[in-house]
Amino acid sequence: MKGIRHNMIKKISVVILYISISVILAGCSVVPKEEEYNTASFVKEYEGEEFSMVTVKRGDVRDFQRINCEYRSSNIQEAELGDWDMLKEVYVKAGDKVKKDQVLAVLMSEDIDSRIEDVKYQMELKKAAIGQAEKMEQLEIRKQRLVLDDETAIKAIKENYDAEISRNTSELEALKEQLKNLKLELRSYQIRADFDGTVTYVNTGIIMSNPWERGGNGAGRGMKGARNSKILSLTDGAKPYFAAERSSSEYIDKLSEGDKITVSSGEDRYETTVHFPDEDNVYFLPDDEPENIENGNQATAEYVINERLNVLYLPESAINKMGDGYVVYYEDENGLKSVKEVKVGLSAANRTEIVSGLKFGDSVIVR
Fold first, then answer.
1. I need a surface site. Which of 43, 100, 261, 365 has the fewest CB within 10 A?
2. Predicted confidence band of residue 227 (pLDDT cuts 50, 70, 90)
3. CATH 2.40.420.20: does it fit domain 41-63+309-366?
């Protein structure tokens, strides 16, 4: 009996042990119900894949349209001597106000002044000859009528003087054309103002009133020291601006006189004020004098449709759409990939505003 009881107890123990192991194994096979987000995994699983970490930054998120424009500095005219030029006279001094096309200075020319004077003299002679012939014609006709009143003779007188008048008139017209050409040639020796403005610099030290004395027989020695020297400078005094044609962008018509708008050129940004000088153009007037930009450089004005200033933001690629909301992935303290729901605002120019869910400096995963 004792042996039988021992065997029964042994069998019962085996059954109990079997049942316990089965329960334990069954418990290990139970899988929790799937959550709304994917289960966490180790961040190291991303090794070998394309991903990076970014941090939450603070700045501006702007949704804007670009308006192409061109930088224009104040107009500046500078005149200098060429290799073989000689300065004869300067008619202005620094500080003088001048008008467009006004003669500011004149270079030495080979006898063009005397040639112009000679042509003018010849023209006066022709005018006098024409006037004299017209008077003589009237006197001769009157005399003929008083003496013989011969129509044939009167006709001959008219023909004679008319021929003389016609010849002198033709020669006068030729002289006028010659004078016109000489004046055009003279302009090539004159330095004229390209626009209304103020003279800012004059160099009278290179005037050569008598180049043959200054330079000797070759004259070149007198010009050598002045060669390529600046004669004068002129500016219109206008403030620099960025210009665009009104028809170049539909967004220009959405602007109003006095609006503030940002203009960028390369890495530089300028705060400007909108000004419409006429119906065809728009100017963006900088609040401060632009630096490191040259006349004619291209730029873009930013017409802001919507903006959020001084807000937290992440690159758009760091934000993931999940259901009706948005999430980001990050590495938790255990090195696991974890998910966090965030509330986003404006998205523009590869920036997405973070309204809540993250703080400045937080790191997230970008795949």
1. 100
2. low
3. yes
Query: Among 330, 323, 322, 317, which residue's Cα sits nearest to residue 359?
Result: 330
Using a cut of 0.85, tell me whether the model's pTM lies above it.
no
Distance CA 92, CA 25 (A): 108
Tell me how far apart the alpha carbons of residues 280 and 143 are, in angstroms, rounded to a whole number: 71
CA dihedral 126, 129, 134, 138 (to 10 degrees): 180
Chain centre to alpha carbon of residue 280: 17
Tell me, letter by letter, the H, E, C secondary structure of 280-330.
CEEEEEECCCCCCCCCCCEEEEEEEEEEEEEEEEEEHHHCEEECCEEEEEE
Show me where the domains of the chain are located. 1-30, 41-63+309-366, 109-188
In this structure, the number of other CB atoms found within 10 A of the CB of residue 28 comes to: 7
- Residues of the chain by 3-state class (helix, strand, coil), percent to 5: 35, 35, 30
Q: pLDDT band for position 37 (50/70/90)?
A: very low
Q: How many residues does the chain have?
A: 367
